[in-house]
UniProtKB/TrEMBL annotation:
Stretch forming the signal peptide: 1-20
Residues in Fungal lipase-type domain copies: 104-234
GO molecular function terms noted in the UniProt entry: hydrolase activity
Origin organism lineage: Eukaryota, Fungi, Dikarya, Ascomycota, Pezizomycotina
Identification of the protein by name: Alpha/beta-hydrolase
PANTHER family membership: FUNGAL LIPASE-LIKE DOMAIN-CONTAINING PROTEIN-RELATED, TRIACYLGLYCEROL LIPASE, PUTATIVE (AFU_ORTHOLOGUE AFUA_6G06510)-RELATED
Species of origin: Cucurbitaria berberidis CBS 394.84
Keywords: Hydrolase, Signal
Single GO BP term: lipid catabolic process
Length: 318
């Protein structure tokens, strides 16, 4: 399993045609929400560490040292899975955190080039999230392979700890699966907050609008010039859930409350989308380093993605 070591984007400038929907911009978030973002980003990172998806019942820990807030909390996983027998290879855990009174559902991003190839086939498929709602078929199939592990574990944990808040998180591919998982948990009657980091677009207007309208809290966090939230492209019919919490800070810098800008709208050409020059390193750094646990120098595949966004031709080579 090789990790993608590099991603080169060549951006050919075209005319920027602004057809953006009306949007509302706010600068800055409260200290409590910032603290919650940092904690949830570390729970998303923890899903890359094998000890958190191999053997349920233990404290959530990251040997790579990038989840100190998680390790400070008194937690235990109640379900861990890595569905290597399925094509999607979906991996993650459900944990209870007694310090923060949370039930956490966390999904790992992809670590293999094969998974990324699956990610970046852009066909959509029907879902049972809502009527007429289609989503990316790879993301949806990943959630289908996870849900018989996730939903019973959430059900049991919320029966045992009814006052704990259900939170769903993930980074990258894991963020896309988290979005679909949170939507389905809400449809099943649970109140679930969703925190995603570097999520690709998950589907078309209908499902994105449906999820944006759900209550429980939708926190879609993007960072600087991370390429992944720019995919699949708007011109392929994909849009984002709203709002976007955009971290306006370069890599490896401490993020302060005022560094986060909030943009609303399924199509918002500000925030992360405004970047023309993009850098995979910004995908690997959110409030700290994400997914270092299984990091290995990977090989570059021959995958190429082309498209036009905001009047700009984008060519991505993995
Ligand atoms: C989401 O809410 C908006 C505003 O109330 C509404 O116009 C839209 O139809 C809703 N979308 C879905 C899919 O329910």
């Amino acid at each position: 399993m090789g990790l993608i070591s590099s991603l080169i984007f060549a951006v050919l400038l075209g005319a920027l045609t602004g057809n953006a929907a009306p949007l509302i911009q706010k600068r800055g978030i409260g200290a409590d929400l910032l603290a919650r973002f940092k904690l949830m980003e570390q729970y998303a990172s923890a899903a890359y560490c094998a000890n958190n998806y191999n053997s349920p019942g233990d404290q959530v820990e990251c040997a790579s040292g990038n989840c100190p807030l998680v390790q400070d909390a008194d937690s235990a996983t109640v379900a861990e899975y890595s569905r290597e027998e399925t094509a999607t290879d979906v991996t993650g855990f459900v944990a209870v955190d007694h310090t923060n009174k949370l039930i956490i559902v966390s999904f790992r991003g992809s670590t293999s080039i094969d998974a990324w190839r699956t990610n970046f086939e852009f066909d959509t498929t029907a879902t049972d999230i809502c009527s007429g709602c289609t989503a990316h078929h790879g993301f949806w199939n990943s959630w289908l392979d996870a849900r018989d592990r996730v939903i019973p574990a959430v059900k049991q944990a919320s029966t045992t700890f009814p006052s704990y808040q259900i939170t769903v998180t993930g980074h990258s591919l894991g963020a896309a699966i988290a979005t679909l998982g949170a939507a389905q948990l809400r449809n099943s009657g649970y109140t679930a907050a969703l925190y995603t980091f570097g999520s690709p677009r998950i589907g078309g207007t209908k499902i994105s609008s449906y999820i944006s309208n759900q209550s429980g809290g939708n926190y879609r966090v993007t960072h600087w010039n991370d390429p992944v939230p720019k995919l699949p492209l708007l011109t392929m019919g994909y849009v984002h859930t709203s709002p976007e919490y955009y971290i306006n800070k370069p890599n490896k810098k401490d993020v302060l409350s005022g560094d986060i800008q909030i943009y609303e709208g399924a199509i918002n050409l500000r925030g992360n989308t405004a970047w023309l020059l993009i850098d995979i390193e910004a995908h690997r750094w959110y409030f700290g380093s994400v997914y270092t646990c299984d990091a290995k120098k990977g090989k570059r595949g021959g995958l190429e993605i082309r498209g036009v966004e905001g009047g700009v031709d984008i060519v991505a080579t993995f």
